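Weekly modeling sync, notes
Attendees: S.R. (lead), two postdocs, one rotation student

Agenda item 3: backlog of single-chain predictions. S.R. asked that every request posted to the team notebook include the full sequence so nobody has to chase files. The rotation student volunteered to paste the first one in as an example of the format we agreed on. Action items at the bottom.

Example entry:
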Amino acid sequence: MNNDIFPCLWYDGDAKQSAEFYCKVFGGEITADTPVVMNIDLFGQRIMLLNGGPQFKKNPSISFMVICDTEDEVQKYWDQLLEGGIALMELGSYSWSKKYGWVQDKFGVTWQLFLGEKAQEQKIVPTLMFIHENNGKAKEAMELYTQTFPNSSIGNILKYGDGSEGHPIPEPAENVQHAHFVIDGYSLFCMDNSYDHQFDFNEGISLVVMTDDQQQTDTYWNALTSNGGRESMCGWLKDKYGLSWQIVPKRLIQLMNDPNQEKAYKVVQAMMKMQKIIIQDLEDAYHS
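Predicted structure, as returned to the notebook:
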């Protein structure tokens, strides 16, 4: 499992409360604790929580599938996550799982709790919902992502036409009901959905990719911004589907965490002016 790719959740000041809550629910630990960035480790996976301000709200276009080993485990997480939250799909027995429920917790993060057939190495799997003008593009998106990153593959794809599942809204048979793919060793799920939800991909939940060098940074940045993607600030971008990514060279984090605060501050100032992160310009600012 790759810990150089991980989700980032956007908060308006309550990242620390949320970090503590998830560590309690899932038995994790806080690995970085600053006023702006919290990192937590759940089941050996990194999740970043960012106090970014009021601009963006998290929504269910990206949810987190938690693959559980027992019905008791599903129940334990459900009871805690439901406190102050909302059930989006009631906990129960469904054709795809003996015990399953979809809940939005009190911090606005949505979790699909699922009794798995077999234990997987990666216990928490971000799940991307392709809706509105993205509906029907889940397969195309998986192809883009798996072509962009090394050590990638597309796993099982269940199409709506494959199942006898009755849906409240008839879905096109060729659309993806559920699929699994891997980018550089990190597992994700995705699905198409015709429902006219009141939400879509936004910066509230993004995917962070830590890069080793400028070449890797450029490759990912160029692939994800091409054909209708958009460059944003400070290493953020939106791909053609509106999904937000942060392409972050590891060197940036090293320089920003330098014990010499004046130098670290210069690096941050330089970074704030950038769209794509240019490592050499950071080094120049550091040594200036």
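Discussion: group reviewed the output briefly. The mean pLDDT is 95.
Action items: rotation student to repeat for the remaining queue; S.R. to check formatting next week.
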